[in-house]
Amino acid sequence: MSRERVHVIAGNAFAISDAQGDMEDAPDTPVGLFSFDTRFLSHWVLSIDGEGLNVLSRDDMTYFETRFFLVPGTASHYVDADVSVIRHRSINDSFNERITMLNHSSKPADLTVRMDMGNDFADLADLADAAEGRGPRPAAQVTADSARGQLVLRYQRERFVRETTVTSTAPSDVDERGMTFRIRIEPEGKWETDLHITMTIRGEGARDLRNDLESHRNHVRGGMREDLGAWLARAPQLVAERDGLEETYRGSLADLAALRYTPLAYNAQVPVGGLPWTMALCGRDSIITCLQTIAFTPELTPATLRMLALLQGGQLDDVHDEEPGKILAQLRYGESAAFGDRPDGLYYGAADTTPLFVVLLDEYERWSGDTALIRELAHPARMALDWIDEYGDLTGDGYLRYQRRNERHGVINQCWKNSPDAIADAQGREPPFPRATCELQGYAYDAKLRGARLAREFWGDPAYADRLEREAAELKDRFNRDFWLPEREYYALALGPYGDPVDALSSNIGHLLWSGIVADDRAEAVAEHLVGPRLFSGWGVRTFASGQRPYNPVGSHLGAVWPSDNGLIAAGLRHYRFDAHAARIAAGIFDMAQTLGGAVPEVIAGYERSLTKYPVQLPSAGRPQSWSSGALLMLLGTMLGLRPTGDNLLVNPALPNGFGRVELLDIPGRWGRTDAYAGDRSSSSRSRPRLR
Amino acid sequence: MGTTAARYLQQLDTGRRPDLPAATSGTVRLDARVDGCTDHWYLTIADQHVRVTRSADDADLVVRADTAVLDGLARGETHVATALLRNDLTVRGNVQLLMLLRRIFPGPAGARHPRELGRAALAGRDGRS
């Protein structure tokens, strides 16, 4: 079987197969059909007369629809088949595969077509975390019903029931391992069947749980193509001189469309993290995605804010690392979440999501002018602001910190660099807990300032606004005193519990620019580090600077390059007017995205660009990922210098050389729709004579 | 041991609950099943107050479960969201109100405030030096 994977996606439902369209369970890769964190099909293999098929070509029509063109027989040098096969699959709440067989010969073809089917109803979280192991699980029950042409696979643990039902429109012999079709196709004739798979989550009275939820009843699926067309039409239109930029832009928009889903008990679409491991609502990923895309697809933001407000922490709970006012880290629906084997049904182990929630709320108002939402969410926003000091300041020194209380399954590093070894000093020593990473302080500072604006302008509470502003100013002073490493001219990655700095040079300092917590006279040193040889790879800013002991170009947070990280960094550089620095980063990330083609990966290796010439992908990196696709949009907005000021959109472009003319038309916001025009230095010199 | 849902709801504080969103109001009916009978508890939520009555009237959200499951909620042993995922608790209507139960019922007993961990870390250093 080839290594290539082919996917179709619709929100948190997705199917991953090999290049032939077959799904065969393989270690380390979540192959099969999934929905709501559960595998509904792990085996789906087509054969003709006992032989596998050979792929001729494929048409990835949209993110939710693919056609495979195949012939019988395994790969050979010369394929001259009398029969050809088209597998046309699509996904929404259910999965459909139309199999069409064409007989190209002048004689009738008598064939045995077989689809093998099976499932283990695995929890996606278990596949992601195979090392954890699992206790014995009940086996799936299989019911083959030839008369109705259907195969039912059912999994039950107590009242938890998941069911896969496969039906065929053409008559078939159904057995417990699949369906067999004994067919005759006339000369130049064709045969086809629709195999339809429904994925059921049983609720009350054996109905699908989702049917009991008003929000899902009201949510009319269908018209997915129209939906995608409308999504693209609502987004601004990009006209760009640079080759491939328009395609990359539209691809990113389509990725974002693919990664929207409607949570249970909700009535609007929010972004999931991305394929394959985080096809779930992740507080951090969804907030960052919204921040990246406000200028392009603003509809994601109110839905996300409302959803996160609904699930805001309400109690102290060690298992879920939950506190009142805290914003969610992750929402999952799998078996392990249901039975408490993992705390990720509703898990709150993140120290950044809560301040970022406030940042997003304020930013959205600046763009949209939606003051009703600001009033509606006043209570959750104030709870979030209160959380920062009441629950986030663990040692009482005024810094936002984290330490997990669920010591078995809780996340160790509760910041965006969430791998267990991500927070270390230049020598590789990891600080004790609770830890205060630097970017968390920037987010808290920004949240307080923005909360103050909301309190003064919309909540009618100037005293609260004054208090928040005073706290923000104190935090900035304190931070610039305690985190700054004067001899190295950058901010420490973190402070340990006793205020001892973790001296590593890391990309986190770029987030500080984005949040505005950097003292003006230190911004240049920070900017120079970000594009200096230790941090900048040529494609983007490394998470962790080279030359330090833990540096590893393939270490997710110890040297690799994340587009989402770079999006925030470039925006931060422009806040402090380092336009050329920002342009360099934007150019590197766009070069990377366009060189690789397709959806932007979550992360690439931190190797020097001049060394590898080609972006080196990490096997663990998923794509599409909402905050990677979103990062390209954010970088585009940063290059154009888009910023709402009052009721107008300010455009202040600073394009990298080689981008030529760039026009972004119909940018939505409180101004209605408006356009932004930009050109790099070469294009402005070219256009100058025409202006005279 | 500990309380039951019935006792918890009978004794529920009728004062202002600042942790409930001021903008959220609605009615929730809890149907507690035991031995073929169903007890109805009717919660009216408005202006950060919760009023509990006994009524089988229709509500914005109807939650059904065995009495034992609701008792688990009242003791802070069961999370309302995982109970829903397990299908131990079923819902009909406006499910956005469901998460309010997380705030109306208590959290788990013995949960630590994050500052306890911070204090322990600082005390650990003092002990060491």
From TrEMBL, chain A:
Transmembrane segments: none annotated. One of its GO terms (biological process) is carbohydrate metabolic process. Residues 425-595 form the Mannosylglycerate hydrolase MGH1-like glycoside hydrolase domain. InterPro entries: 6-hairpin_glycosidase_sf, 6hp_glycosidase-like_sf, GDE_N_bis, MGH1-like_GH. Residues 10-195 form the Putative glycogen debranching enzyme N-terminal domain. SUPFAM superfamilies: Six-hairpin glycosidases. This is Amylo-alpha-1,6-glucosidase. The lineage of its organism: Bacteria, Bacillati, Actinomycetota, Actinomycetes, Micromonosporales.
UniProtKB/TrEMBL annotation, chain B:
Residues 16-105 form the SCP2 domain. Pfam families: SCP2. Gene3D superfamilies: SCP2 sterol-binding domain. InterPro entries: SCP2_sterol-bd_dom, SCP2_sterol-bd_dom_sf. This is Sterol-binding protein.
